[in-house]
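Page 37, continued from 36.
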């Protein structure tokens, strides 16, 4: 027994020497590789997303701020900037061309947006049912959206030609006089709105279709058991269920109408920049282009651009208010 105790005592390791200031018990400091690793973990996510922010700053934020700076100056192409303060905005308020362009933008937007969204709702409602070849029809309604603006506008310009256009030919067969689609105010705006409706109806129809397919089928079955017709189901079940999507398309279509440029530009031909011989379909985008690149008044063009930005912000604020009201009162 004594021998085994002595052997155990001999095998016990000696106690560790007490730590001293020169030999602390804490682990040694990390090396430079460890510091690089920690910095890599912290900075790598920012490095990965930095190309987007650099691109946005170069092509989005800087042009926006520079345009705001130009709007406060009198700047001619090839000249130096001269401080004018808010004179460019005051000149817009007194310009009949600006108010004419603003009114044209509003009327063309209403004429093109309201029928477009109503037709898109109807198409989406039809495509939502089990039809033969509905996959083909879903692709077909998107074909106008994939068509070039220039190609579509040139075709419609021929259709609406006053002398030999197909539209006037058909009207003549029906006993109506030919319509001056290019030089008259309302016919020209209807013609341009027709191009917009043709291009964007199918796109909005597919958006509505995707929203309709997310509506629970139990709601339709319950409505059918209550004796509701398809029209009543569409009004009482489908429309309330896709209300946020409808609001989204209204806002997006309104923004697109505010920035309308290609269709009236090409439709007017040589007079497209001025919106026709009497500015009858000149939009805000066309007026901005005319001020900046035809007359060379970059300061006035920049002021128009900022007015358009303020209009878009106002539209966004209205959309936010409607969305909040819809969340508070979903049944309204």
């Amino acid at each position: 027994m004594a021998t085994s105790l002595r052997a155990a005592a001999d095998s016990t390791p000696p106690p560790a020497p007490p730590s001293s200031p020169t030999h602390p018990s804490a682990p040694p400091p990390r090396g430079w590789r460890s510091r690089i690793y920690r910095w890599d973990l912290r900075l790598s996510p920012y490095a990965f997303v930095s190309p987007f922010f650099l691109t946005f700053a170069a092509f989005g934020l800087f042009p926006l701020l520079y345009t705001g700076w130009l709007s406060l100056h009198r700047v001619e192409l090839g000249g130096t900037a001269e401080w004018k303060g808010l004179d460019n905005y005051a000149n817009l308020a007194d310009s009949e061309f600006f108010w004419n362009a603003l009114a044209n933008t509003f009327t063309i937007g209403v004429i093109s947006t309201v029928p477009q969204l109503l037709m898109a709702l109807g198409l989406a409602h039809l495509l939502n049912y089990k039809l033969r070849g509905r996959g083909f029809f879903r692709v077909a309604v998107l074909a106008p959206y994939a068509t070039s603006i220039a190609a579509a506008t040139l075709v419609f310009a021929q259709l609406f030609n006053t002398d030999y256009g197909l539209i006037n030919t058909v009207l003549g067969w029906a006993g109506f006089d030919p319509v001056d689609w290019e030089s008259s105010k309302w016919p020209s705006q209807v013609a341009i709105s027709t191009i917009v409706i043709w291009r964007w109806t199918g796109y909005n129809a597919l958006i509505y279709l995707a929203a309709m397919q997310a509506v629970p089928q139990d709601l339709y079955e319950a409505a059918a058991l209550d004796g509701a017709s398809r029209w009543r189901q569409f009004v009482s079940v489908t429309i309330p269920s896709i209300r946020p999507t409808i609001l989204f398309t209204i806002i997006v279509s309104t923004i697109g109408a505010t920035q309308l440029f290609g269709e009236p530009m090409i439709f007017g031909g040589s007079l497209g920049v001025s919106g026709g011989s009497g500015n009858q379909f000149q939009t805000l985008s066309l007026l901005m282009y005319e001020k900046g690149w035809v007359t060379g008044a970059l300061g006035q063009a920049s002021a128009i651009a900022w007015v358009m930005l303020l209009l878009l912000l106002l539209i966004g604020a209205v959309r936010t208010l409607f969305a909040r009201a819809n969340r508070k009162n979903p049944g309204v």
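Confidence is low (pLDDT under 50) at residues 19-24. Flag for discussion at group meeting. The beta strands are 73-74, 82-83.
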